[in-house]
Design brief:
- The complex is a heterodimer of chains A (about 190) and B (about 200).
- Chain A is mainly beta and about 190 residues long.
- Chain A is built from 2 helices and 10 strands; from the N terminus they run H-E-E-E-E-E-H-E-E-E-E-E.
- Helix content of chain A is about 10%, strand content about 45%.
- Chain A has a 10-stranded antiparallel β-barrel.
- Chain B is globular and about 45 Å long.
- Chain B folds into 2 domains: about 30 residues; about 160 residues, Lipocalin (Beta Barrel), CATH 2.40.128.
- The chains are: A mainly beta (about 190), B mainly beta (about 200).
- Chains A and B meet through helix 1, strand 5, strand 6, strand 7 and strand 8 of A and strand 4, strand 6, strand 7, strand 8 and strand 9 of B.
């Protein structure tokens, strides 16, 4: 169990961040335009886990828009307020801003609206203070959006939405993991009006 | 009317107090249903563990020490010896020593990792998007969970979960590491409580 003491990523990151921060030419650029639009769920399957909520393909709907140097997304989050509470839908709108790291986008709390009862106040993105940590990652034509919240009892709520462009539309894989359960939804989306 | 209705008020009060006392006595000894407290985990444990994919059974020896830290926190130290062909006296054996220190979080039922070397320094603000590891712990039922979460440089994440579960004689352990949602490592083991 040697993993715990693997802090190798931390100091290099601070150094790289400090160097890149001095260069305004880096860290610019949002998403490829092919991601932008209203995407509607066409198919949904529960790949793993079970849900006490009847999920439908509409739960995969997502809107992605350019926003200055970053992008803005609106989607439906499935979450429990606490362990044992029923799974519930929440509409989330979030803006992501490019960071110094290529392909990595940070959540912009100033330009986002979220259900505060679900995520707390996302001011500093420190899950240990009850705030959600959200970020996004672009790898080619795959966009992943991540969220981590730590609830007051110490349990966690970690989700990972992976959306990949295809010739016909977009595939999606939503992974929702807590300390007690795992739920994986997979589906397909098409561009609205397309 | 029931017989109770004929008892004087003082008698009813005495009965109620007696019932409460009996409930209080029954509570903590009610068996496994009672949730563990942090102090229940304090102790020294020795045992062995096996990683999924290990060819040798019980290929690792483990030592765990859980102790108080400051007033309400805890520290945990663990040593893992990875054996070679079931032996720990031949070249190639690896020994790792790891420690972590936790204090209670304000107004939350969880523990936050702190630096043991600077116990009086105010906690540094965590900035996960700069690669700072987010580490915390909680007691849930009979399990002490310890979590470590890091956003990696390329935007993927690494989540490590260490569960130590109280048993009649010691602790069972389960370690899992997820890289961007994929389980890449899992170790399970059992230990017995020993005299420190």
């Amino acid at each position: 169990m040697a993993d715990w003491g693997d802090p190798g990523v931390i100091r290099p990151l601070v150094l790289i961040g400090a160097i890149l921060a001095a260069s305004p030419a880096l860290g610019q650029g949002g998403l490829p335009a092919s991601f932008h639009g209203d995407w509607q769920g066409e198919e949904l399957t529960v790949e793993d886990g079970s849900t006490d909520l009847e999920v439908t393909a509409e739960d995969l709907n997502v809107r992605i828009e350019p926003d200055d140097s970053g992008f803005r997304m609106r989607w439906t989050a499935l979450s429990r307020k606490g362990a044992g509470d029923p799974l519930a839908r929440s509409e989330v709108e979030a803006r992501f801003e490019p960071t110094d790291r290529p392909g990595v986008f940070a959540f912009d709390p100033e330009q986002s609206s979220m259900l505060l009862s679900l995520f707390g106040d996302p001011a500093t993105s420190n899950p240990l203070e009850g705030e959600p940590l959200l970020w996004a990652r672009l790898d080619g034509e795959t966009l992943s959006v991540y969220g981590l919240a730590v609830n007051p009892g110490g349990g966690f709520d970690l989700y990972q939405h992976v959306r990949a462009l295809t010739g016909e539309g977009m595939t999606v894989r939503h992974t929702h993991r807590t300390e007690r359960e795992l739920l994986i939804l997979e589906g397909r989306l098409v561009r609205a009006g397309g | 009317m029931s017989r109770l209705a004929h008892l004087p008020l003082r008698g009813l009060l005495a009965l109620a107090l007696l019932a409460l006392a009996l409930l209080a006595l029954a509570g903590p000894s009610g068996g496994k249903a009672a949730a563990a407290e942090l102090g229940d985990f304090f102790g020294t444990y020795v045992g062995n563990a096996q990683e999924l994919g290990d060819t040798e059974p019980m290929a690792r020896d483990i030592d765990i020490v859980v102790e108080p830290f400051h007033d309400e926190g805890f520290q945990i130290h663990w040593i893992t010896v990875t054996k070679v062909d079931g032996r720990r006296d031949v070249p190639g054996v690896e020994r790792t020593v790891q420690s972590a220190f936790f204090e209670p979080a304000e107004e939350r039922s969880l523990f936050v990792e702190v630096e043991a070397a600077n116990p009086f320094r105010e906690r540094e603000a965590k900035e996960p998007m700069k690669g700072h590891a987010v580490r915390w712990a909680s007691v849930d039922g009979e399990t002490l969970h310890v979590y470590s979460f890091v956003v990696l440089e390329d935007g993927r994440y690494e989540l490590q979960i260490y569960d130590r579960v109280l048993t009649d004689g010691g602790l069972d352990i389960v370690f899992q590491r997820f890289d961007d949602g994929v389980l890449v490592r899992q170790i399970k083991g059992s230990t017995v409580r020993v005299q420190p």
